[in-house]
Design goal:
Elements (H helix, E strand, L loop, with lengths): L20 H27 L4 H5 L4 E3 L4 E3 L2 E10 L10 H4 L5 E10 L1 H25 L5 H19 L4 E12 L2 H16 L4 E4 L4 H7 L12 E4 H6 L14 E6 L5 E4 L9 E4 L6 H14 L3 E6 L5 H6 L3 E4 L22 H20 L4 H17 L16 H9 L5 H11 L4 H4 L11 E5 L8 H18 L4 E5 L3 H4 L2 H13 L5 E7 L2 H6 L1 H8 L3 E4 L4 H11 L3 H9 L4 E6 L2 E6 L4 H7 L3 H24 L6 H11 L3
Parallel strand pairs: 10-15, 10-16, 11-13, 11-14, 12-13, 14-15
Antiparallel strand pairs: 1-2, 2-3, 3-5, 3-6, 4-5, 5-7, 8-9, 8-18, 16-17, 17-18
Helix pairs in contact: 4-5, 11-12, 11-16, 12-13, 13-14, 18-20, 21-22, 24-25
The protein binds adenosine-5'-diphosphate and magnesium ion (MG).
Length: 649
């Protein structure tokens, strides 16, 4: 049997209808006509539509020989004519950073190297001929000519080897002003800035419209005024190196308002990890710190916050932190007599001595003024208090039980000349304030985020409590070295007493050794800066942020931070979250921005908080309803939320 080699197809052949040529032509022209009509109709329809173009287009554009008028404002284009022999990187930065409205465009036209080489060869030939004729004539040497020849020879080498390429480079700047006078003034300003760098610019003449068009973001060069340049100087014209404040790793602090770049930093990579923030109330200090806290937690940094307004609770809950309420009524206690477990190679004697000094600082804040005799008595009494609990230079610090305030009281009562001190201390051991300092520590700091709330403390007790909380934190920090940040919000409380100011300063100075960065936030700028310790804290903080300032504080701020007049106004008029950020010796205008989710966690806007609370309650109610039918294991969520409610949010 024969097998067919080609596959057989059973598809019947399609019969195309046979049309005459005349018919085809007729149909084609009818289709064309119909299409033209539709297009025409669409054109008419589109003419009646309002587009974005119509909305943003100026109502009037008047062209004059050297400037143009755009509605109510005036504009003019300047172009660069020549450049000097040497040009430094970032030469264009002063123009970019000028706080004026300008449009800048740069055009780069690559040129074929072989054409340029031919021209250069001719030039160098001419110059060499000149040189030789000078020598023959016995004329003195011409350094200008020699330099030019050297430059050209070097360029010829680089072009031939492909190290450099050749471009024609055009740079136009269009400036705008409200009046003609302002326009002239701005023109001179820009010409002066460029002239200072030996770059000569000119304003357009009878080409105002072409100038305007050439600086529109449409990439059309209607002026065509270019300058020959090789790669290196062209590269130095790259404009966006202005006020750059960014490192390769770290967290986002905000947006650089000069050029919309990101301000990223790892504060632990600077010479110290301390940070100060100054601003008036409501300028966004706590908000920016909360953002930093959230973002740093993600990088595994441990954070401890002292919260005087109870505004970190929501954030703390959300990330599963420990919230410790310190007040007379609270069950949480901190004993100022605690000792750190061990500190590097410090001996037990050193540790006890430093604890006695710290405690004396605390007692001075508690008692107000004390005399020199009383100081000596306290010194002795404190050492005896420790000794009464067997805390001596020979003791093993991991096994001791620290004394409490009552033990000091007993020692003072038995000491000669200590009657008055003992009476003063009574208030803190048996009197109204007994709840706060007279018991062993029962708080736990084993969490990545720990917040101490001091809102419910009486004003009189606050500096004292802050002092003991910070001592406690300092002990924990020295016992185990870890990457940590300590945030002290509204730190001016601590500056009101010399002893606590001194203590914070010592902390800020020494914390680098323990991998700790201290953040101090304050709204009472003058008080803070007028204290010598406050000033020293500022100089010992590598990161600094200034947000909106009150007119009363601005002069002080301007002196200390060496601000320009422009920066001063920026701080007086800035919106919420806007200010100046300093890192080391660089600074830039910043805007602190949060994502929606971050904002929900950190806002302290009462309206937003009410909304969040309402949403929580609704969630709770719904969860409760579901709960009636759900498995018992799912009860966890509603319980947790009612826990949150107890804490007052
Ligand atoms: N960068 C910001 N973006 C949006 N809202 C902000 C920003 N900074 C602060 N806020 C809002 O402004 C208000 C005041 O901020 P807050 O940080 O509490 O001020 P401060 O601590 O300086 O007194 C709050 O309602 C806060 O939510
Ligand atoms: Mg605040």
């Amino acid at each position: 049997m024969a097998i067919p080699l080609t596959p057989q197809t059973n598809i019947p052949e399609q019969k195309a209808p046979v049309l005459s040529t005349a018919e085809i032509k007729r149909r084609e022209s009818a289709a064309l006509k119909a299409e033209t009509i539709t297009l025409e109709e669409e054109k008419i329809y589109r003419r009646g539509l309002v587009e974005i173009k119509d909305l943003i287009a100026p109502a009037a554009f008047e062209v004059k020989p050297t400037y143009f008028r755009l509605n109510e404002s005036y504009g003019r284009t300047l172009f660069v004519l020549t450049y000097p022999r040497y040009i430094s990187v970032g030469w264009f930065t002063p123009i970019i950073n000028l706080s004026k409205t300008l449009d800048v465009s740069m055009f780069f036209y690559p040129t074929r190297s072989d054409l340029i080489l031919k021209q250069l060869k001719k030039r160098v030939g001419n110059m060499q001929a000149q040189l030789m004729s000078d020598v023959e004539k016995g004329a003195p040497r011409d350094p200008m000519l020699e330099t030019a020849i050297n430059d050209i020879e070097k360029l010829r080498d680089d072009l031939t080897q492909g190290i450099e390429k050749f471009f024609q480079y055009a740079l136009y700047v269009t400036i705008y002003a409200d009046t003609l006078d302002d326009l002239e003034e701005l023109t001179s300003e820009i010409e002066a800035i460029l002239g200072g760098k030996l770059i000569y610019s000119k304003k357009v003449f009878y080409q105002a419209e072409q100038g305007f068009n050439s600086t529109l973001p449409i990439g059309i060069d209607e002026l065509m005024i270019s300058f020959n340049m090789n790669t290196s100087p062209v590269a130095s014209s790259f404009p966006f190196i202005s006020s750059e404040l960014s490192s390769d790793n770290g967290i986002l602090y905000g947006i650089n308002r000069h050029n919309n770049s990101l301000i990223l930093f790892d504060r632990f990579s600077l010479q110290n990890a301390n940070y100060v923030i100054f601003a008036t109330s409501g300028a966004g200090k706590s908000y920016s710190i909360k953002l930093e806290v959230l973002r740093s937690l993600m990088l595994g940094v441990d954070i401890i916050i002292i919260d005087p307004e109870r505004e970190y609770l929501h954030l703390c809950e959300a990330v599963g932190g420990t919230y410790i309420d310190i007040s007379l009524a609270s069950k949480n206690k901190i004993n100022p007599y605690d000792l750190p477990r061990s500190i590097g190679d410090a001996t037990t004697e050193d540790i006890i001595r430093s604890a006695v000094i710290t405690l004396k600082g605390l007692l001075k804040i508690m008692f107000g003024q004390i005399t020199v005799e009383e100081d000596a008595i306290l010194d002795r009494a404190l050492i005896e208090t420790y000794a009464s609990k067997d805390v001596t230079p020979q003791a093993d610090l991991s096994k001791i039980e620290a004394p409490v305030m009552q033990d000091l009281q007993s020692i003072l009562e038995g000491m000669e000349g200590a009657r008055e001190l003992s009476l003063k201390l009574n208030k803190y051991t048996r009197g109204t304030f007994a709840g706060l300092f007279n018991q062993p520590t029962n708080v736990d700091m084993k969490n990545q985020l720990v917040v101490f709330s001091v809102r419910d403390l009486e004003d009189e007790l606050r500096p004292i409590a802050l002092y003991s909380i910070i001592t406690y934190i300092w002990n924990v920090i020295r016992s185990e070295i870890k990457k940590r940040i300590l945030v002290i919000d509204e730190a001016w409380w601590l500056m009101t007493h010399e002893d606590s100011a001194k203590f914070i300063f010592a902390l800020v100075k020494r914390c680098r050794k323990y991998y700790l960065g201290v953040t101090t936030i304050t709204q009472d700028v003058n008080d803070f800066l007028n204290s010598p310790y406050g000033k020293a804290i500022v100089t010992n903080s590598a990161l600094q942020m200034l947000l909106r300032q009150s007119p009363a504080a601005i002069d002080n701020i301007q002196d200390i931070f060496l601000l320009t007049q422009g920066e001063k106004y920026l701080l007086l008029e800035g919106g919420v979250g806007e200010g100046i950020f300093f890192a080391g010796n660089k600074h830039a205008a910043i805007k602190v921005v949060a994502s929606y989710n971050e904002d929900q966690l950190i806002t302290s806007d009462p309206r937003q908080l009410l909304e969040i609370e309402a949403a929580k309650r609704q969630f709770e109610a719904e969860a409760g309803k579901e709960d009636e039918t759900a498995e018992p294991a799912e009860e966890v969520l509603p319980k947790k939320i009612s826990g949150v409610k107890e804490m007052g949010i």
